[in-house]
Amino acid sequence: MRFLPVGPQCILVELADLDATLALFDALLADPVIGIAEIVPAARTLMVTTTAGVPADKHLAAAIAQREPKAGTVPVARSTETVDIPVIYDGEDLDDISRLMGLSTAEVVAAHQDSLWQVAFCGFAPGFAYMTCGDDRFDLPRRPAPRTKIPAGSVALAGRFCGIYPQETPGGWQLLGRTEVPMFDLSRDPSALLRPGVRAQFVKGQGKSYPVKTPTVIKVSAGLRVIQTAFPILVQDAGRFGQAGQGVSSSGALDLGALRRANRAVGNPANDPALEITLGPVRLRADRSMTLALSGAAQAIVIHPQGRHVIEHGAAFALDANDEVLIDSPAQGMRSYLSIRGGFDIPPVLGSHSTDTLAHIGPAALTSGDAVAPAGRPAFAIADRMTAPDLPAAEDVVVLPVTLGPRTDWFSPEMIARFLEQEWQVTAQSSRVGIRLSGNALSRDGTELPSEGTATGAIQIPHSGQPVLFLADHPLTGGYPVIATVHPKALDLAGQIPPGARIRFVAEDPFAPITLEGRQ
After folding, report:
1. Which of 190, 235, 478, 500 is most buried per CB count within 10 Å?
2. What is d(CA 65, CA 9) in angstroms, rounded to the nearest whole number?
3. How far, in Å, CA of 276 to CA of 334, rounded?
4. What are the pLDDT digits (tens) for 26-61?
5. Cα separation of 233 and 20, whole Å?
């Protein structure tokens, strides 16, 4: 057992193999360690996150180590459920799989159907289950280069596992075939068909079309209406938690501080849903009287029959019916949060109102012509305007504190120094999934990393050597080594860094007090 640092409230526990990992997972479920909030199991690791105020330190590690089962302990059977999954065996990599296994294609299909597959853990995308079986011949490498697009319903193999892509996504597994059975369906309870412990039996399929899930569409006749927007407007709250067993990450506002300031300004609970606006310009019209507040990067300008009125940043303001609010593209920062007194009338999905852009969970994005209705819930007293931090501009260098690890041993000291010493440029390919960086590329150990949990703020190094800094909509698990993880207190700042800005990473003791630098 090895303990690898992720951050002040997160640690990665590395074990010998999948059986040892699941056995320790069982032990921690049976005898919980006080202070653990969530555990994400993977091929050889458990990513352990603690509750607020509980450090992921040597005391936590010692408590986890005390629960390590004896060597050879068999994981418990979590489920007696077995599902039949029909498959059309026409995958693009079927011939390569046949060659790697030393079997004919017919023998590959027969072996796949003869095996009883069991879900070990979920991750990568909602409903993506990592299944294993007793046939060691299915221990296959990933493709040399990942595909940029794999169709939803693709049945694939890699590294001892079988998985089914629940949605169209990039991926590097060997494609065996396809199924028409939806892996993740919000009309089901639970939504994921395959969950830890569930067994799957693959049978011959009929080739029906794979149903594609879509986000919840908000349809209202009157409310706050989008007249113009440069980018889709998203609904975000504090995030979606406790869904790791279905492969669902937390999502949520990228600048939680700005979300909370906007809500407090109109008397809402701090973590209520608000509209996340990326850059600008945005023009909105009130179909009825309402009170709003805008916090984050941009400033609001109210347009009414008497003229224009510039709103003090972060302050609450009132609109009468047919008044408009203009939100220009900000000079600093990237995202703004618009709250409404009494909240928005938006149904939650899996316990949250957040739109997860990677998983396609939550309300559909708002574009021109769409409207969202006020909920009219009781509100508290409007708070005084809160001081907001300075935000970075496109020409700035932003300093982000990081905890080195958990996979620094995959990089030479020269590569770690290169990572810390240079300024990485934020590219236009960045999104809510992650900030894509460009700089003097890092090289690393060329072997494959078994899939393991990834935290928000994790900085993965793919084969290109150009880092990707994971934000709120990142996949729950990943297969590239994480060289460092941004300190949780710097995540709001990271979510506001615009394309063109540069980032310099500074290694910090995860348990030492830190002072964040916004700009220099």
Report:
1. 235
2. 17
3. 10
4. 999 999 999 999 999 999 999 999 999 999 999 999
5. 44
